[in-house]
Design goal:
Layout lengths: L1 H23 L12 H11 L22 H13 L3 H27 L2 H12 L2 H6 L6 H26 L26 H16 L3 H21 L5 H23 L1 H5 L5 H17 L27 E8 L2 E7 L3 H20 L3 H14 L18 H16 L7 H26 L2 E3 H6 L13
Antiparallel strand pairs: 1-2, 2-3
Amino acid sequence: MRSNVARVTLVVASITALAGGLRLWGLGQPERKIFDELYYASDACLYAGIPYRRCGLEDEGERSWVHPPLGKALIALGVEGFGNRPLGWRVAAAAAGTATVGLAGVLAYLLWRRALWAGVAAGLVAVEPLQFVQSRIAMLDIFLAFFVVLGFVLLVADRRRQEARAGAPGEDGEGPEVGGREASGAGESRLRPLRLAAGAAFGAAIAVKWSGIFALAGAFALAFVWGVSLVRRGITRPSSERIGIPVAMVLVPLLIYAAAWAPWLAREDRSAGELLGHHRAMADYHLTLDPVEDDGEPIHPYLSPAWSWLLLARPVAYYWQGDPACCEEILALGSPVLFWGSLLTIPYLAMVWWRRRDWRAGAVLVPILAQYLPWLAVTRPLFLFYMTPLTPFLALGGTFVLRDLAGDRLRDRPAATIAVAAVVVAAVALFTFFWPVLVGQRLSQAAWGDRIWFDSPGLFNWV
């Protein structure tokens, strides 16, 4: 076991370090605020205690007041450390994005207990263009992704730990990595630390963006289903699940979310009543924001309905600098390998979970569906970058299919080995191809046109 842990640590750490280097490279470019940095970087400057005039603001009012404070507070840590400049605005996002790559590898290892698949999953996240771009801009979505993936890592780790404590084989047919007690739930705590920590992570996700509640709902569903399974197998006691799940998945997230607002309350000595009023105003904003102007035109040129996201029909341009010779652009778009591939991997995960009762398929599928399906019913303005917290799970879904195809011993299936290598190479190749429009490198008109695959005002006018 120790050699296996050492091997996966080396693999995941190496990929994470490479991902970090890519995310930090040229992070100070462009040398001005782009897209929604106008809101979040500006407010983070205020959070860092810098006078509003030095933050480039006309008053002390918060420009992104419609979102909770935690993500902006994390951006402010970078401003405090590196100054009110582009590197300071973006370094916290780069750190969160890099950590998310590592967490995806850890989650893959918890699911499959093989360094190979941990490396594949981490690698696919490392070169996923949407996750990459969000790791290089001072916006909230990468922090949401970090806490969501952390929450599911801890939830799966809790399940694995319960099986290991009991000395019981997992429902995937694999024995635990460490022995333990008889499968009777003896000596088990109702408030398991890993599950409590998972609830705290999901509470932090909601304190970044309210859409984190979608991930929490998925985690609650998984915790409930797994709890029933663990009780049925005699690994945990019914009271552990009846008490532990609501505490970890309801009470703890609420406490963490409330705690995230403490600095907001302390600022200007605000009252609890003002906090409630602020939440009513936030809710009213999101519920009443119309995606269409009075004249029938969209309020933003890069809006896209949720059903179109997996098709990558409408990427979002964050930065554009052009002249007759052509241009520089930063474009938030997803990996065709993962997004288009998900049209196959999502049904495959559902089939495997249903027919084989493989809980690991559910551990990947539920976070995808829980964070995607609710957007189909949302009428407020939507953008492709709302998919950021799903990208690690799309990578895990692809890894699941590749592992099923190849098995644990690639050398026993040469054709499958070629298929796995082809998918990984394609993901890396596409990331390399799109690199100039992910970091804002200057391109000729022809080179830029080669990377703009869809003409939204034309072919995708229906989006």
